[in-house]
Every structure is written in C-alpha cells, then in structure tokens.
Amino acid sequence: MTMTNEQVGAYMRLLCLQHQKGELTEKDMLFICGTRDEDIWNKFEKSETGTYFNSRLRFEIERRKAYSESRRNNRKKKDISKTYVQHMENENENVNRTKKKGGAGGKQFVPPTLEEVIAYFKLRGYTQDAAERAFFYYHENGWKDKNNTQVQNWKSKMNSTWFKPENKKQSSQANYQTLTP
Fold first, then answer.
1. Rg of the chain in Å (alpha carbons)
2. Is the full-model pTM beyond 0.70?
3. 98 in a structural domain
4. What pLDDT tens digit does each residue of the chain (181 aa) get?
5. Rounded to an integer, what distance in angstroms lies between the CA atom of residue 108 and that of residue 64?
6. On the CB side of 15, how many CA atoms lie within 13 Å of its CA?
7. Has residue 27 been placed in a domain?
8. Residues forming a β-bridge with 168
9. Final residue before a domain boundary, out of 13, 32, 53
C-alpha cells in the first residue's frame, strides 16, 4: 500500500520519536497522526506493556548497539586488525559505491607512472609536454600539491589543475592553417 506524503511524514516522525524514546505511547501516536490511521499504525506492533514500536527500527537499533560495543571492545585490544568483523554488513550494499577513496582508512595512494599520465593527457586531448610537466612537478614534490597536501586522486588533480586551454593540443586544421601562407 502506498502512503500519501502526509502519511509518510507522520510515519517518519513516529520513527524518529521511537528512536529517541524507545517505545511510543498511544498518546504519542495520536498526537503525530491526529487520528488512528491504519496505514501508519499497521507498521507498529503493540508490546505487552501497551506501548508501540516498529520492529525493524528496534532491530536496527539493537544491531547498531552491538556493533558499537564490539568496536569499543576491539579498540581496547592491541592489534585490532585481527579482531575486525563486519558486524554492520548490508546485503543490499553496492560494493563499488562503498569503496573508500583516500584519507585515513581509505585506499593507499599509488602514484601513476609517467606513461600513465601521458596516456591520460593524450586521451583527453592535451599535449605530452603538459603531461610531462605535470608528472615531474608532482613526482619531485612527493605527490603533494602547492599547499603541501597529499594528492589523493591524481586524475582529479590533473583535471582541476592542468587541463587548461593552453595545454590543449591544437587540432590538425589549426596546424594546417599555421603552416600555409
């Protein structure tokens, strides 16, 4: 069953309130919903004490608490790399979207070769001379930029810093025109 925007808003507010309070009273439910809206109320279960809760939210809260507790316990140990277990894995996650890039805990930056930089520049229509200047600038500085910040993504750095009109290859038509009287 599809809910209206108003129902979705009330449902989200109830979930937020449950997350804060743990369980909801009937008064809480009626205050947010206004009336007993079956589409919303059916998403909550009634406990033995007469309070209401969304079982999925309760499950996720408990899962998060267990994960946080395991992280806390693992941090107390000396070598946490051997104790790491993926407690919060999500079977719906797209692995490609969750890869970390750069920064602490992310992938280690691997500097490109001169050939890789030249190929990238040529593919984008820029000169080999510009590629070599860019490569040697960063190579000599330990792949740190002008602010002494470690380069995390060399292609992005090339796009933002070196891909300028003056570094662009001239088209063959432009070369032809400059060679003819």
1. 29
2. no
3. no
4. 688 898 899 999 999 998 988 888 989 888 988 888 888 888 898 888 999 988 888 888 888 888 888 877 777 776 655 555 555 555 555 544 444 444 555 678 889 999 999 999 999 899 999 999 999 999 998 999 888 989 999 999 999 988 888 888 776 444 444 444 3
5. 28
6. 15
7. yes
8. 126
9. 53
Six-digit token pair at 95? 């692995």
Ranges of beta strands (E only) in 32-172 are 45-46, 52-53
The CA distance from 13 to 40, in Å, is 11
- Domains identified in the chain, total number: 2
Q: Which amino acid is at 119?
A: A
Q: Are 79 and 122 contacting, i.e. CB atoms less than 8 angstroms apart?
A: no
Could you tell me the residue range of the domain that residue 155 belongs to?
114-167
Last residue of a domain, one of 13, 33, 53: 53
